[in-house]
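User: Show me a protein chain along with its predicted structure.
Assistant: Here is one chain, sequence first, then structure tokens.
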Amino acid sequence: MKKRFLAALLTATMSVAMITGCGSGTKTETAAAAPAADTTAAKESGDKASADLGDFEMIVGHAQPEGNPRYVSMEKFAADVAEKTGGHVKVTVYGNGQLGTEKEMLEQVVQGTVQGMRGGQFDFSPRLLMFTAPFLTHTRAEVTALLQSDLAKSVCAEAEESTGTVIINLCDAGGYRQFSNNNHPIKTPDDLKGLKMRTNGMKTIDLTFQQMGASTVSVPYADLYMGLKTGVADGQENPWVNVLGMKFYEVQKYFTEVNYQFHPDPFYVNAAWWNTLPEEYRTVISECATEMGEYNDKLIDENSEAAKQQIIDSGAEVYVPTAEELEAFKSAVEPVYDKMISEGICTQEEMAKMKDIVANAK
């Protein structure tokens, strides 16, 4: 069904100009209704100026279900863009993986068949992986400092040249990530030995698990629930809000609150489409994307603890390591930093820069 839906969408989208769009099925949509009447000359002049810029449609996909911070913040983004452009830019958001896997959606953005996608998909921008070094940060302030740093802006700027996309925002993909499995509680690094842990194909996740003796298997996010249920993987790693939203607690018994990693959440936009927009609209959309990212991170912070409690209430076991136990995890994965440098994810200088940014975060 998903493939038929995707084929129909792409056929319809490719049959019209890039700046037009179409959609069917469940989605978040903002109607391009005419602005409310206003008797002031200034308002009328502003409306006419906006109308003269033309009408544009922006189709955006992501993988998260309704209620997830990404889903909710994308609704805000769509509404804000419609309001601030007087309805002349309409954003239609397809959540819950309706347009395919995150990799498939990013491929569509690169090809220009959809205009944007949000998600932790780094196949085409692997340098973003540097921010996923295990235990690199420990607080929201440190995460924000990294994602708003000149280093992050520089890495994002590389995307247009290498992929034909523009990253218009970089926020948090869901909060700190936790371990889970169905075999036994994970209290020490040795408890991971022999487990088959799911990854999304990210090199830093593979390196982290393998350093602690686990094997890894790549499973798309949309297929993970069934993969865990059928034993394709023994366990996985995800933030509390994702575990709750995707109901992984129904097919995982043991969780460990290890807070080992966060993922950047890039908002990719097709560069060719972006560059057709009037400068005024690019400015508005960029501002709305910034507000969306701030709102997303706020929702994560507000909902993570509640999500954890709901997982506990479901009957799953959640283990919180002691400070000493956490240090054992950190020590076990220290070699990952050197491997990230040797494999070209980042340079020694960039690793030092990230550590400096975190150390000076306020």
